[in-house]
Amino acid sequence: MKKPTPDDHLVVYSDGNDDYTYALPKFFDVQNVDYGQMVKIRVGGKVVDKIRNVVYGMPFVNCIHTNNVENYNGILRERVSYLVRRTKCIAKKLGFLAGALDLFQFYWNFVKALHDRASPAMLEGLATRLWSWSRFLHCKIRRR
């Protein structure tokens, strides 16, 4: 991730449950961060209203949403069996869970094409083409 600058702000949206208000200043200059929260008001388990709060900077209020993160979390739980349910499948060692998450993250960022036929890594300039599992498994690592 690039360090945020006055010309290129870091944009963060959250649901208000995880409070980044204290975490973000530890790592970033909040002058270069646009942080907004979408707080869902629930009554009887149903969402009845959504309130958008600007915490830092100047995020576009109408753009504050958590759909992408909630969708990603749902897909992650579907694809990584260790995250489904504790009783269904359990990682006996933390390294197993970390490895499964690393593989999924590689797949999501380098192998899976988005709607515009580019992967997230291609959009960020980290890759020039889609990777395949064969290319990944046969990739030679160069030592420095």
Quick overview of this protein structure:
With 144 residues, the chain is an alpha+beta fold. It contains five helices and three strands; from the N terminus they run βαββαααα.
Q: Strands across the major sheet, in which order? A: 1-2-3
- Helix-strand pattern: EHEEHHHH
The biggest sheet, with number of strands, parallel, antiparallel or mixed sense and barrel status, is: 3 strands, mixed
Shape: globular
Distance between the termini: 22 Å
Instruction: Summarize model confidence as the mean pLDDT.
Output: 87
Structural class: alpha+beta
Helical amount: 25-40%
The radius of gyration over CA amounts to 19 Å
**Total number of helical segments?**
5
Poorly predicted regions? none
Roughly what fraction of the amino acids lie in strands? 15-25%
State the total count of DSSP E strands. Answer: 3
Structural features, described:
The structure is a single chain. It is globular, with a radius of gyration of 19 Å. It starts with 9 loop residues before the first strand and ends in a 7-residue tail after the last helix. It has helices spanning 24-27, 67-79, 94-111, 120-123, 133-137; strands at residues 10-14, 33-43, 46-56. The mean pLDDT is 87. The chain has 144 residues and is of the alpha+beta class. Strand 1, helix 1 (24-27) and strand 2 (33-43) form a beta-alpha-beta unit. It has a domain at 1-65.
